[in-house]
């Protein structure tokens, strides 16, 4: 199979409100950050794919405005997914695998500040039985968290061990993530009191406290993909995509076991994640409880560095946070801080859809 | 070059509202009609599980499902979340618990609200029953909410024909989202200048083209445009169409002309209505100028200037 790598990554500073810039104005510096890293201009890219969502912007076909940022005239080969950019990256990866393109630019962006995100996200739910009740995104995550707490201990016999899921463990995920984000200049939230102090905070939607939830914010990300020798020419240490897969689960929350994520497990298996140990994982877990579920499904033991970027708890720009996980994992390989990394992205309520990629750097 | 001012960012409320009309298949129709009649229906899968709420295709096997059964209006909470501040559209206006409830006789759970005095009154495993809405129409909101119930567990699911008089065949799901629209730097500058009857374009530093209205980027070069250039006010009709359909809420007599207008100094045509001339006399090359709207914030339409028509070569690149 043709080798494809992530050769560049750029992201914005993620902020609660970016009213001073339009989407394309927010996106353009990020595109150039990624392109400049490999010395390419937009017009030299063979395939462009983006991820975004009209419901965030409140406008139909909002992604077409962002196309001004990549120089879409004269016509380019371009595609768009109404999803997180991680899925746009998947499409670009398959395009490169076919041999129809040597390079691809993948970008995604989301501005949550114009609307009320918790309400906006209700519009992705089943329109017959669920959306008319307007259950907001934090409440749905809280249902999942309570299910996990009720299960008390999530067991995976033969895996890297049991993970105790209690409120202390959730606070531990928050504190670790936001402390790690102190080293990430793009993070929206960085720094945290210790878990014990976090537990004194009131509930937002019980059993979730504010620290269990991601910040709401605006941001953008871009990566450049390249195949084979082109990747080697553009990047000193390309992050080779060894496998990538995405899976989805039943739409109805009441059909699923919310303490599990079989789609993450299956995607990881198909991506080859279990064929050799990984030393770093970037998980798209917007809620603390989701990290505990993913750690078990992805068989990540205590020796794996999880979200050294701070993860989605430090910055969760809708439609970009998943692509950022792939970008952060690749960037760690580019700079020699990881050799084999797992990157995960999610979409939909309670980990409904999941994508897993395995990235590797060659021995230098 | 005019140095770009750092304008205060414009913002305005933007409401997106739509009554989605959705048709129901046989299974969803039976379920929602059943709610109207105080009857909760599920569907039995080919391997014997009972799904409530029912779906037309098995999420595991993808088998088509139509074997309807009736389950009890009582059930057990499988997980919950305490919502201290209810939001617009949610089932209850006072603090409540979101719950997944497995109704007696069902194997899967239904999402709804539970009316309880506080979080300490809620636990996984607690027994609940449906509180019906006073007025029911065949929608999930016919269940007003759940309420605590200390009775025994109901029985097994029993077969049901799913036949009702006057079944509902569709629902109207009103959706409303409120936004604060902010057009960004380039368009804020453009709109502010427009209020002073001045039209600004932005020049691409690479290809030197002047775009109007500016959006902060050159779509050809993919680079930021910063240099502001005053264009117009006069321009040339590059192409046009004659509109024969009356738009709702628009007080313009048909037929009228909508045109692309290349403002003097711009390299991209913008579009606007042409007035002050019979519709069948509008032509390519016609020289026009803006007529400002009553509140003066934007041109209402463009009218002929009386100048001789522009030469085709002056605007052929902008067609």
TrEMBL record, chain B:
Organism: Streptomyces rhizosphaericus
Pfam family, one: zf-ChsH2
Official protein name in the record: OB-fold nucleic acid binding domain-containing protein
Residues of the ChsH2 rubredoxin-like zinc ribbon domain: 193-224
PANTHER family: BLR3430 PROTEIN
Domain ChsH2 C-terminal OB-fold, chain residue ranges per copy: 69-132, 229-292
Gene3D superfamilies: 6.10.30.10
Superkingdom assignment: Bacteria
